[in-house]
Amino acid sequence: MRKVIVCTFLTLDGVMQAPGGPDEDATSGFEHGGWQKPVSDDEVGNAIAGWYEPADAMLLGRKTYEIFASYWPTADPGNPFTERMNAMHKYVASRTLTSVDWQNSSLLEGDVADAVRALKASDGGDINVVGSGDLAQTLMRNGLVDEYRLTIHPVIIGSGKRLFAEGAVPTALEPVSVTTTKSGTVLAVYRPTGEPSHDSY
């Protein structure tokens, strides 16, 4: 069984929107695009590279797919991620796209949850969900996330799209590993373990 792993960059207050640049995603008037680089370091890059090693595919929503497809095919070949991003298979969930042209990309057909269940049951390595907040919400609601790999950066934005938005499914998490980089970024890996318990003091 393949694992579906949500890999997400977050601010300390949980915002995942537009970490990579001011023009990445200005939806709803978001003005803080590009918040990640000033608070990142090489340990973050090394951790992310390690998170990609067991994966041979990405699962992307339309917006993230379009951002990546406009960048990675012509990205600097000296960047260690360029070859990896282009070579991995990309599964794209979209209600509006009719074709995907980035190499090794294919559109999911039919119901997204059913399509992802079929992917999980197929042969292959891990499948990383990158960005793609709306898609991540759908996967969480349907119990399809096997692991969260989060970089939680020391910055507060105050607005923007959040991974665990209002209405997120209550879930207990088992910590797999939690470390902190020299810049104060928390590298956290968690696995869902079912419904949370409740108790009192």
- What is the name of the CATH superfamily? Dihydrofolate Reductase, subunit A
- The CATH architecture classification is 3-Layer(aba) Sandwich
**Tally the helices: what do you get?**
5
Q: How much of the sequence is in beta strands?
A: 25-35%
Tell me the quaternary state: single chain
The biggest beta sheet is recorded as:
8 strands, mixed
What is the C-alpha radius of gyration, as a whole number of Å?
Answer: 17 Å
| Structural class by sheet pairing and helices | alpha/beta
Q: H/E series, N to C?
A: EHEHHEEHEHEEE
CATH topology: Dihydrofolate Reductase, subunit A
General form: globular
| Total individual domains | 1
Pfam family, one: RibD_C
Domain Bacterial bifunctional deaminase-reductase C-terminal: 2-187
GO molecular function: 5-amino-6-(5-phosphoribosylamino)uracil reductase activity
Protein name: Dihydrofolate reductase
Characterization of the model:
Residues 2-187 form the Bacterial bifunctional deaminase-reductase C-terminal domain. GO terms for molecular function: 5-amino-6-(5-phosphoribosylamino)uracil reductase activity. InterPro entries: DHFR-like_dom_sf (IPR024072), RibDG_C (IPR002734), Riboflavin_Biosynth_HTPR (IPR050765). It comes from Streptomyces lasalocidi (Streptomyces lasaliensis). It contains five helices and eight strands; from the N terminus they run E-H-E-H-H-E-E-H-E-H-E-E-E. With 201 residues, it is α/β, with parallel strands linked by helices. The model has no long low-confidence stretch (mean pLDDT 93). Strands 4-3-2-5-1-6-8-7 form an eight-stranded mixed β-sheet. It has a single domain (4-22, 30-170), classed as Dihydrofolate Reductase, subunit A (3-Layer(aba) Sandwich). The longest helix has 11 residues, at 42-52.
